[in-house]
Amino acid sequence: MKRRIGKLSTAAVVVAAVLGLLTPSVEARTDTRTKPVVYVHGYNSFGDGTDCNMWSSMDSTLRSWGLTGPKVTVRYYKGDTNCTHALENYGTNGRHYDPGAPFDRYVRVEHLGYRLAWMIYNQYSSRGVTVDVVSHSMGGLITRYALAQVARRHADFPPYLYVEDSVTLGTPHAGTGWADLCWTTQCEQMRPGSSLVNWLGSYAPNPQASGGTDWTAIGSYDDEIVSETSAIAMSAAHKTQYLGSADVAHSDYYKDTTNARTADVRYNDNGGAFYTWYDAPWAVRWSDQSLLYGTW
Which domain CATH number covers 115? Predict the structure, then answer.
C-alpha cells in the first residue's frame, strides 16, 4: 500500500509540474495602479446599445490619481459604441447558452459571462497579466458568473483567470423589483428569485480567480433601480452603502468623481460589523482605493 501511494504521489507531482508549465505564474498582490482596468457596463433599458464613453469621466479621474494601466471597455450589445473589445469575438459560437442571434437584451447573462471570461483570458490571463474589473449594475452579474464558472472548472470556460480586484456598482446581486417592469431575457434574469440570482447565491457567493480576487460591493439608499441591500448581497470582502444624505442615484456611482471626503456611508469589511462614516470618499474614489489596496 505504501508503494502504491508513492506512485500516486509521483504522478501527482508530474501532473502539477505539467500544469505549472501550461499556466503562467500569477503575480503576488501588487497594490499598484498599473494593471489594466476592465469596465463592464450594465443593462440598457432604452435599446441594444451603450456608449462605452460612459466610463470616460471615471477613468480620467482614476488616471489623475495615478492609474497607468490600460482602459478596457467591453461591447456586448450589437449597438454598443466606443468600446475597446467586442465580446462576440471571444469564445466559440454555439457554446454556453448561445442564442445564435444578434447580441441584444435577449442574450442570457451566462453567455455574456462566458464571452467575458474568454476575453480576459485571451487578452490578459494567458499572457500572465493580472487585471482589475469595475462593473456597473447587470455588469456585476456578468463578471461574477464569469469568475465563478472558471473557479468551478466548467468545461466551456478558460482554465484560469487573473483578476485581482473586482468592484460592483449598484449590481442587483439579489435581484431588483425594477426588472418586473420589462420583459427581456436579461430583465427576467435580474428579478428576485430568478434561476440566475439563485444560482449565484448558491455557487458564487465570492468567486475567486487564480491568485485571489478582492471584491467590493457598493450600493446606495438613493439608487432608484437597485436597493441598497441587493447591491451588497454577495459575500464581498468589502461592502459599502451610501446613505440617503449622499443622494447617490443608479448612474452616479461612476460620475461622483470629487476627491472631497464628504459622503455619508455604512460599510463593513470581511464580514465584520457595519460602521457609519460621515466624511467618507465618494464612489469613484472609493473604487480607486478598492482597486489599489486589499485592505485600507
Answer: 3.40.50.1820
Whether 26 is covered by a domain: the verdict is no
Taking only the tens place, the pLDDT of each residue in 212-248 is 999 999 999 999 999 999 999 999 999 999 999 999 9
Range list of H helices, the chain:
2-22, 56-64, 109-123, 138-151, 185-189, 195-203, 283-292
Residues 6+ apart with CB under 8 A from 6: none
Tell me how far apart the alpha carbons of residues 191 and 284 are, in angstroms, rounded to a whole number: 27
pLDDT at 122 over 50: yes
CA distance 265 to 253: 13
Instruction: Give 23's pLDDT tier (boundaries 50, 70, 90).
Output: low
Question: Domain containing 238: what range?
Answer: 31-292
CB neighbours (10 Å) of residue 292?
19
Residue 261 CA: distances (Å) to CA of 16, 78, 278, 282: 48, 39, 8, 7
DSSP SS3 for 274? coil
> In this predicted structure, what is the pLDDT of residue 295?
81
Q: Domain count for the chain, please give it.
A: 1
Asked if pLDDT for residue 146 goes beyond 50, the answer is yes
Selection from 237, 238, 234, 256 nearest residue 247 by Cα:
256
The answer to whether residue 23 is domain-embedded is no
Cβ(266)–Cβ(240) below 8 Å: yes
The answer, yes or no, to whether residue 64 has pLDDT greater than 60, is yes
Residue 15 lies in a domain: no
Residue 214, in any domain of the structure = yes
Query: What residues contact residue 129 under an 8 Å CB cut-off, 6+ apart?
Result: 35, 36, 123, 162
Contact 149, 156 (CB under 8 A): yes
